[in-house]
Amino acid sequence: MKGLLRLACLLSLPLLLVTASAAQQPVSPPPQPVSGPSLAVTMQFIQNKLSGLGQVNYVGYNHDNAGGSEDWVTHFSTLDTNVVADPSACKISYHEKRIKDDKVTSDSDFWFVLSEMQDVVIMPREQLLKKVNTRDGHPTWDARIDPPVYMLVARKDENTEWYFYFFDQDLANRVAKAMVHGIELCGGGNKSPF
Known about the structure:
The chain is an alpha+beta fold and 194 residues long. The chain has four helices and eight strands, in the order ααβββββαβββα.
């Protein structure tokens, strides 16, 4: 009887191994952690640098290339306050006040979640003005900004963007790099393989 029991166990062992191996599915390896500073350190850096920007005042010298001699000057001012970069929510919030020619054009709270961001770019303020002027039906308008201002643009999609204004291009690039790192840590970014 013992011999039959042993034989039955030995005969069923290959069947168990085949069944166990057939049930296993190949599993992809876990994603590699993003190297670099932690999310908490990254968010603190972003918060400190954006909080330290202060008021950014500059002048736009504008020209209508179609009109020939039409020139005008625009005074701009932007101040971001109450910047909070929350690592637990992957969220950046702030209050922004914008002034154009002594008129407040925006005095609002803004926020965005890093996991929803597609990319971050740095561009000269003139480039954004050209985009806005063209969108508003004035493609022949050009502007020169003095002193030079660099825009950090956090993009969710083509029509949803958040802006931060810098005099220092190097600082703008450092904050953009930190923001891209935060986006990666939060699972955002452009996931397109192309």
